[in-house]
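Q: What does the assembled structure look like for these inputs?
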Amino acid sequence: DAGVTQSPTHLIKTRGQQVTLRCSPISGHKSVSWYQQVLGQGPQFIFQYYEKEERGRGNFPDRFSARQFPNYSSELNVNALLLGDSALYLCASSLEGQGSSYNEQFFGPGTRLTVL
Amino acid sequence: GDSVTQMEGPVTLSEEAFLTINCTYTATGYPSLFWYVQYPGEGLQLLLKATKADDKGSNKGFEATYRKETTSFHLEKGSVQVSDSAVYFCALSDSGAGSYQLTFGKGTKLSVIP
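A:
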């Protein structure tokens, strides 16, 4: 089975622009989470979606938004890009959003966003 | 809020040396604990996990024991190889937060030299 896939692999934008990142979860997984990893730091949680509903949101400004589609794929949108948004954006999928004592998250390779 | 603190790197070891990377956590609920590894240019891979106190996670020669009394989850390996060179992240997932978000430490870069 294919793992979590993300597109594009790399992206270069300028300040003030908008960007959309895409994620396809592992087949059968209904939950998708997004993380931002700034160079030299650990990933920071942005959003979790389960069954197309937002389940959790991290401490990120409203410029960041996301959605999940009926096929469980997801998009992360960032508006009015800042230099500080330059990072590796990771998507992770898991089987369920709740009801289990443990939900292992499987990560994609990430999208490297550079804001100039 | 939840947090993870892990020893700062970088850590440089000779091949076959013993490895310890310290990790302590703070959580409001009953977290599951993880170690993830990130090889250069790649995403995160789950290395091992423990879901309750006194559990020992193990994989590829790496081990970590969930110590509730010391809120720790230290990573150990008896004999490292050059191929273990990577960045290691300690993380927790606290279901009491309402979602299964992962909280990561800052990462420890390990370099193993022949």
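The mean pLDDT of chain A is 91.
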